[in-house]
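Worked Example 4.2. Consider the chain below.
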Amino acid sequence: MLTFEPVDGITVIYGKNGSGKTSLLEGVHFCALTKGLGGALDSECLSFSSDYFLLDGSFRSDHDAPVTVKVIYKKEKEKQIIVNNSEVKPFSQHIGRIPCITFSPAEMVIVNGSPAERRRFIDNAISQTNRQYLDDLLAYRRVLLQRNALLVQLSDKKSVHRAMLSLWTEQLSMHAASIVSGRVQFITAFNERFRKLYSHFSVDEEPGISYRCSLGIIKNESSTELLTSLFLAKFQQTERQEIFRAQTLTGPHRDDLSFFLNDKEIKKYASQGQLRTFLIGLKLTQHQLFFELLGEKPVCLLDDIFSELDASRIAALFTLLETFGQTMITSTEKKGQGEVTSLSIESLKQTVEV
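Applying the procedure from the previous section yields the following structure tokens:
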């Protein structure tokens, strides 16, 4: 068993590659968000020689409210999340209790990968501060599965009631409208803060985010009633094509975010350092917005964040993080400025209790 107690401010855990630094962040991430860092499967987080893992975490909010979290995972058994001595089911009920912001190399796909990665980013971000959004998202996914299953049956010309499609379409439209409305409002609030924060890294680069909705351009003031009617009309237009292709072609599950620097899409023109800085800016802005909405500073888990960054951007990063509360950073080298606590992973391993 390894016991780790980070300081209230910035803790840098440094050591060689493969020495176990990321595992510390992984443990905190499981306790906060019920899953592995960077989308890792539970089975991939097991030590090669182990059949199970057990995490026992103690947290305290900015309002001094204690939270204990125990995560138990065994091979071929369902994972258990126990919060304040009570088992949590479904796990989504725990999301938001311990606000958490992450950065890991695996998350670079948010800025240079497929649309699904950017949808996952915005859904995770909103879900930690908006319970209704999370409920709508989960309901949307359930209805989408039902609707797609019915489209497959209609495509195969099986004997099913065509009227059932209208019922699923109506439900899907209502949840889709709520999700799109939440995303548009979030991005509107996010963009202004993002530009201001990013200026700490570069005054010559102006970032921007736009939402690419399958309905077209959506205004921030568009009501959920209007969006529902637009979705219903769109589904009516594409119904024949959807039956032919046996899948739902419209909705937030097909939307995307576009990222820009100086009005140029970063996937096409940005350097590796700019891509990494953009993602760091996204995550730090997310932290600021969470603090505004929740009155609680999220825990920051930053894995291998310094690669591809020049000295000036690293200095700017530390300056920003000084006001961010509890932050844990992994690095291959000892780094820091000001009030930063640096710990060698090897020295932490020497405190292991058996």
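The chain has a mean pLDDT of 90. The chain has two domains: 1-99+301-354, 107-296. Compare this with Example 4.1 before moving on.
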